[in-house]
Amino acid sequence: MRLPLIAAALLGLLLVAGPAAASRKSDALERNQYAWSGAIRWGDFEGALNLIDPAYRQAHPVTELELERYRQVQITAYRDRGASADMKAGEAVREIEIGVVNRHTQAERTVRYREQWRWDPEARTWWLTSGLPDLWDGR
Length: 139
Fold this sequence. Notes:
The chain is of the alpha+beta class. The protein has one domain (about 1-130): Nuclear Transport Factor 2, Chain: A. The protein has 4 helices and 4 strands. The termini are far apart.
């Protein structure tokens, strides 16, 4: 008689824990995306590097010259244009529109950027896997 009760209790815990774990992952994604967008908005590109996947950072190191280029721009807007997330797969995407002004020429332009995020179960965090935005859009 006790075994079915214990099994039912464990099943109930699993049913409650599943959505709670997904909620924690969702909250963690929201926190990291907020931190990322804040860093970009305020021009803290060096700080933003801390949210980029360590494997990506190692494969695509940012040089001092590249960081100097980022220091030459002012971010005027950072708009979320759509997002999707698959919590089970541990993947998320956000379409972003960034307003950029060159500090030297005062020329303003808008750049589109796609954030790609992945869940790291070992670190229990979300990492950006798309790198810093190309604010020059190939220029």
